Request: fold
Amino acid sequence: MQAFLDSLIRGWGHDPQTWVWTQLIYVAFMGLFSFAVINFAAVTAGIFSWAERRVAGRMQSRVGPNRAGPGGFYQWIADAVKLLTKEDLVPTEADQFLFRIAPYFMMVGFACVFVALPFSHRLVIAEMNVGVFYIIAVTALIVVGIIMSGWSSNSKWSLFGAIRSAAQIISYEIPAGMALMIPVLLSGTLSTQGIIRAQGPWPWEWYIFHDPASFAAFFIYFISALAEGNRTPFDLPEAESELVSGYNTEYSGMRFSYFFLVEWGNMWVMSALATTMFLGGWQVPFLPVTDAADKIAMLSGGWTVLAELASIAIFTFKTLFFVFIVMWLRWTLPRIRVDQMMNMCWKYLVPVSFAAVLFVAGWMLVIHAVPALDWIMRIVLTAGGAITLVMFWLRTLQNIKDTGDKFDFTSNW
Amino acid sequence: MTAEEIHAQLAAKFGERIGPLMPPNKDSWALVNKAEDLIEIGQFCKGELGFDCLINLSGVDWPKKNQIEIVYHLYSYSKRHQFVLKVQLDRTAPSLPSLESVWKSADWLEREQYDLLGVEFRGHPDLRRIMMPDDWVGHPLRKDYKEQASWHNIETTRESPLDGFVRLDDLTKRKAAATAAIVPAAEKKEVLQ
Amino acid sequence: MSEARRGTGPEPTMDMTNKEVMKRIEYTGDMLLNMGPQHPSTHGVINFLVQTDGEVMKRAIPEVGYLHRSLEKIAEKCTYNGYMPYTDRIDYIAAMFANQGWAMAIERLLDVKVPRRAEYCRVIACELNRISSHLVAVGTMSMDIGAVTPFPYALREREFINDLLEELCGARLTYNYLRIGGVAFDLPESYGDKVLTFVDHFEKILVEFNRLITYNEIFVQRLANLAPISPELAIEYCLVGPNLRGSGVKFDVRRDIPYSIYPELQFDIPVGRGELGVTGDCWDRFWVRVAEMRESCRILRQCIAQIPEGETMAKMPRKIKVPEGVEASVRIESARGDMQYYVIGGGENAYRCKVRTGSFTAMGIIDPLSRGLMVADLVALIASLDVVAPEIDR
Reply:
C-alpha cells in the first residue's frame, strides 16, 4: 500500500522521501482504508447472514427470508436496523464494564485480520512480511472477548459457553498454526501475497495438491478453522440445545449482533485464508504472477484493469465456494461433544499436523534432488481430487434417485 | 399363570394374611390384609411368581368406607401374566411401607400418590411432592378436597370471564325484540294523532 | 475442593422442600445448574436440577409438575363422553392413543363390542398418529444433538399426517376422534388412497432420513454407548414402549396383550440389538423409533386393504352409566409405550381414573442414569427417552 501511495505522491510531482505532507497522506489514507475494510467486513457478514438463512431454508425444504427485496436480499439491512434500535440491556448482576466492552474485543480481533488478507493481485491493505503470523496472532483476540462476555454475564450458561470456547479455540490454534506453516515452508515467506505468488493458477500448481502432507494440512486447517470460528460441528460454545445460547445468552441489541457479525465475518476470513494458503489465491489462468515475473503488470492499459478484475473475481469465487461449504456443513452435521472435540484435537490433529510439517520438510529435500517427482506427485494428487469429486457427484445422483427426489433450483424465491 | 393359580400360590404361602380372590370385577385382585406384610409379599411376588415389574400404583379415596385403597398392578415380562394387589388403609392417617426397595418404579409412583392423596410411604428415600408445589396445602385427589383460596398471593379461583357476556344470537334476538316493541308504539302514536 | 466443605447435609425427609434439597447440593461446592423450566431442549416445562463438576454431571434431579392440570380429578367431575376431549390433553403429541385408552376402558367396564369397521378406523388413526409422534421424537432428538436439518424434514412429513387426520376428524392436534363404542366419523371418500399415497412417499423419505442422520458418524459417536439401560434395569424402572424395546426386550402390548384388531395384522417388533454400541444405548432407542415408523406403514397398508364395510358406532345409551365400584384396567401401546388406564366406575362419572403414562416412569430413570454423564449427554438422554411434559404431569 505504501508503494501505491508513493506512486500517487510522485504523480502529484513531489518526492515522497522529502515532501513534508507525506506522513499526513499516509495517515489519511490509512483511515480511509480502515473505514473501507471495516465496512467491507460488516457488509460481508450481513450478506452472509442472509445467505446462510437462504441456504438453510433451501436445505431444510422451507422458504427462508424472501420478503424484503429480491429474494429477501435486504433482510440483513432490516435486521441491522432492528438490532440497532433495540434496547441495550445489561443484567443487573453483570459486571457492567466488562459486559459492555467484550463485543468490541471480538470486533477488533476480527477486523484487524482484514488488514493482511489479500483480495486480488494488488488489492491488499498492507503487504506485510509477517502476514500469516499476524493473522494467527490477531485472531486470538476473539477468544478474549468471548471469555470476557461469558464471565461478565454472571450467568452459568454464559460461563459454560465461554470456558468451552476458550478451551476449543486455544486447542485448535495449534493444528491450525502448524497446518499454515506448510505453505510457509513451501514458499519460504510469511507474506500472504508472497505465498500466492509462489503458487500458480492451475490446480496442480496449488499447495493443496503439492504433496500428501499438504493435502492433509488443508483439511486439518479447514477443520481447525471451523472450530475456531465456532461453526458446526464445533459450535459447542453456543450450542443452543445444551447451553441455551452459550456466551452470548445475556446479550441483546447491537452488542448481541456484534457476536454474530464476527461469526459470519469469520467465515470469509477462514475461507479467504484457505484460498490464499492452499488454493492459489487470486492467480488468473494464463497470467501467472511469480516473484520473478509479473504477467499482469506486463499487460498494457485496459487489459491490466481487466486482469485485475479477473483476479478479484477468481479470489472471491473460491472464497465464496468455501463459505458455502461451511454453511452446508452447518446445516448437515450434528454437534460433537466437548470431550470428543478435545480428543480430536490433541490425539489426532496435533500429531498429524506435526508429522505433516516434518514430511513436507523431507519432501522438499527429495524434490530438490529429483525434480520430476514433484510433478508426478502433483498430477497424481490432482487426478485423485478430480476422481473424488466425480464419485461424490455420482453418489449424489444415486441418493436422489433412491429417495425419489428431484432438482429444483427455481422454486422458493 | 392365571389369576387363580397366582392367588393359590399366594394363599399357600401367606395363608390368612392374603384375602380371597375377588372375581366379580374385571381384573381379579386380592387384598393384602395388613399393610405391614407388603414388602414380604412384594418380594415373594417378584422372586417366586416372577412379577418383575410394578406397572401401576394407584390410590383411591373411599370416604364412605373411611378407607384409602392402594392398588398395585403387577406384570411379569418373563412369564407374561398379571395380578392386582390392594391394600386398605385408614383414611385419617394412611401409612404403609414403601415398595421402592422391591421395585424401583415404585419411587415416582409412590411420590405421586403421596402428593395427590396424602398417603405416607414409610421408608421411601425421597418422599416429596411431585406435581404440586412443596408448600401446597391439601391433597387434591381426596374426595373432600377443598382448594385453598390463594397461594403466595395468587388467587386460585377467578370469576368466570363469561359472566356478563351475551351470546351474539341473544343480542340480535334482543335487538329484534326491542325494535318490534318500538314499532307498534310509533304506530300507536300515529293512530293517536 | 476439600473434603471438609463437602458436607452431605441432612438426609431427605418427608417435609423437606425443594429449596432444602438444592441447599444440600450447594453444600458440596459443585455447580448447580437449573436446566429448565425454560430451556430449549427439555421438551416442555420440566426442570432439571443439575449438579455438575465442570462438564461432568454428578446428578440430574428432575423436577416436574409445571404442567399439572389435574386431569385425573377432572375425570371424576365430568361424564364419560365429556372426558374424551380432556384425554387429548394428556399427551398432545399422540392424542389418539389417550382417546383409545379411555374409550377401551369404558367399553371394558360396559362390555361393549365395537364394530369391526370402527376398530379399523381406530387402528388407522392410531398408526398415523404413531408415525407423527415418532417423527417429532426423532426430529427433536437430532436437533438436540445439534443437527437442525432433520427436524424440518420430520415436521414436513408430519404436516402430511396432520392433513390426513384433519380430513378424518377436523383437528390437527387434539383429535377427539374416538367415541366410547366406536369412532366419531367414518373414513372420508377415497381416504385409503390418500393414506397409501402418503405411505409410499414416506417409506422413501425414511431411507433419506436414515442416510441423513441415523447412520451419521458424529451422530453415532454421540449416541452409541451412551447411557445404556440393561433389560433388567428397564423393567425394574418400568420403562415402556420404544424405550423398553430399545433395551432389547421384545414386548409390545399390541402383540403380547392383544387388543383391537392387532392380532390379525402382520408386523414386526423392532428391538434394540446394540448394532453400533451396547444394547439399550441412546442410539438403539432412536433406531427403534425409526424402525417402528416403517412397521406402522406396514400396518397401515394392511388396514387399508382389509377394512370391512359396516357401522362405525356400537349402540350406546345417550347417558352412559357404570355401577359404582366396578373397575377395569386397560393397557394400550401408545407412541410413548404402554399406557394404562385404571378406571373405577361411579354412576354417571368415573369414581377414579388413573392414567399411568410412559413418560412418567421414564423420568424416574433419569436420576440414576445421569450420574457421570456430561451435560450435553443429559440432553441426548432426555431426548432418547422421548418424554413429553404434559404426559408426565397430566
In short: The first strand of chain B starts at residue 18 and ends at 22. The first helix of chain B runs from residue 3 to 14. Chain B has two domains: 3-148, 162-193. The interface with chain C takes residues 25-27, 52-56, 58, 60-61, 71, 73, 77, 80, 84, 103-105, 107-109, 112, 116, 120, 125-135, 140-141 of chain B (CB under 8 Å).
